[in-house]
Design goal:
mainly alpha; de novo design (two linked rop proteins)
């Protein structure tokens, strides 16, 4: 088993979760069960999938969960675009969140590539 806390991808995903929760506090109340919930769920899914993958015994399972995490990062990136277009976040907040999501995606993609090439 791997220790998820030692992975840079997990650290970034965890930071993104905290940032998303902070930013969505200011979203309109009528979005609580809409975009707010979706963004929070998708961001938590990134970190959770990494953790679950680390708990798996096979490399194939680990990679499968990293792929799920990567899909969730892309989902968050799109949902952040929606939030920006609807002006639910300031430009600065949107830019910071987009940057965090992008870095998380790049590091996760690098981890996936390195594991696939080692196989």
């Amino acid at each position: 088993m791997r220790d998820h806390r030692k992975l840079r991808a997990f650290e970034l995903a965890d930071q993104l979760v905290m940032s998303v929760y902070s930013a969505t506090r200011t979203f309109p109340k009528d979005e609580m069960f809409g975009l707010t919930s979706q963004l929070r769920r998708a961001s938590v899914s990134i970190a959770s999938s990494i953790v679950e993958g680390c708990a798996r015994n096979s490399e194939a399972d680990f990679l499968r969960f990293l792929d799920v995490a990567f899909g969730s990062v892309r989902e968050v990136e799109y949902q952040l675009t929606i939030a920006k277009h609807l002006e639910y976040t300031s430009s600065d907040t949107a830019e910071q969140l987009e940057s965090q999501a992008d870095e998380t995606a790049r590091v996760l993609a690098g981890l996936i590539r390195s594991l696939r090439s080692a196989s």
